[in-house]
Amino acid sequence: MANTRSAEKNIRKTKARTLRNQATKSRVRTIRKRVLAAIEKGDVKAAETELGAFSSAADKAAKTRVLHKNTANRLKSRLALKIKAKALGAAK
After folding, report:
1. Which of 1, 2, 76, 81 could form a disulfide linkage to 8, CB 3.0–4.6 angstroms apart?
2. 47 with 17: CB under 8 angstroms?
């Protein structure tokens, strides 16, 4: 339990930040699932479009330190590799 007014304010700030961070993480996860779903369907064009949205969301999350920048880059890279593999497989 908070003993001072500043500690109470810090608790309120922490709750607000936590909600904001959870929403950001959720948005990143949702867009990532959309990319993976497009890859599963074999729709490379849609996957590339969603990858752009994912890259933007991941970079914003990394900028606000919700995700570590290396984590965001790793996720983007892995999705891009999956899309590339699917595109090469479809081209054959």
Report:
1. 2
2. no
* pLDDT in 10s for each residue of the chain, 92 residues: 889 999 999 999 999 999 999 999 999 999 999 999 999 999 999 999 999 999 999 999 999 999 999 999 999 999 999 999 999 987 66
- Please give the single-letter amino acid code of residue 91: A
As a whole number of angstroms, the distance between CA 58 and CA 3 comes to 38
Contacts of 34 (CB under 8 A, 6+ apart): 50, 53, 54
Task: Indicate the burial class of 58 (C-beta count within 10 angstroms; 0-12, 13-18, 19 or more).
Answer: buried
CATH 1.10.150.20 for the 7-91 domain, yes or no? no
List helix spans (H) across 1-92.
5-41, 44-63, 69-91
